[in-house]
Amino acid sequence: MPLQSPETDTSPGVARPSSLLGDESKPDASESNPERQVSQVMVRMQQLDRQIDQLASTYPAAAPNLRKAQKALRDAAGQIVATGSGSQQETPNPRMLG
User: Fold this and answer.
1) Are residues 85 and 34 in contact, defined by beta-carbon separation less than 8 angstroms?
2) How far apart are CA 39 and CA 43, in angstroms?
3) How many whole angstroms separate alpha carbon 3 and alpha carbon 6?
4) Please, which of 13, 52, 57, 61 could form a disulfide with 70 given CB 3.0 to 4.6 Å?
5) Does some domain include residue 78?
6) What's the number of domains the chain is made of?
């Protein structure tokens, strides 16, 4: 049985493909502007960075792992800025292919 995306963005713990760029059902100029897409992704990543800080403050026992996740997020942000929204996409994970 294939995995299905939830109908709403309110489902906790469920990542949706459009969650970093906004709702894909509303086409706008950002779809044709890679710089704007990268900017939107960076804003979202900054929000995630702050949320990880809050989690680390709330759950000190998990803080070391959260700091590792934060470092990985920051490394990914640097890579996104360095490469932009290049046409290459990540190779699908074999487990996800079925």
Assistant:
1) yes
2) 6
3) 10
4) 52
5) yes
6) 1
Angle value at C-alpha 12, between 96 and 80, nearest 5 degrees:
60
Q: Which residues span the domain enclosing 79?
A: 33-83
1-5, 52-56, 71-75: segment of lowest average pLDDT:
1-5
Give CA–CA dist 46/52, Å, rounded. 10
Tokens 């403050």 belong to 57
68 phi/psi in degrees, rounded to 5: -65, -45
Residues 6+ apart with CB under 8 A from 63: 56, 57
Measured distance CA(64)–CA(68) in Å, rounded:
6
Q: Tell me the pLDDT tens digit for each residue of 33-50.
A: 888 888 899 999 999 999
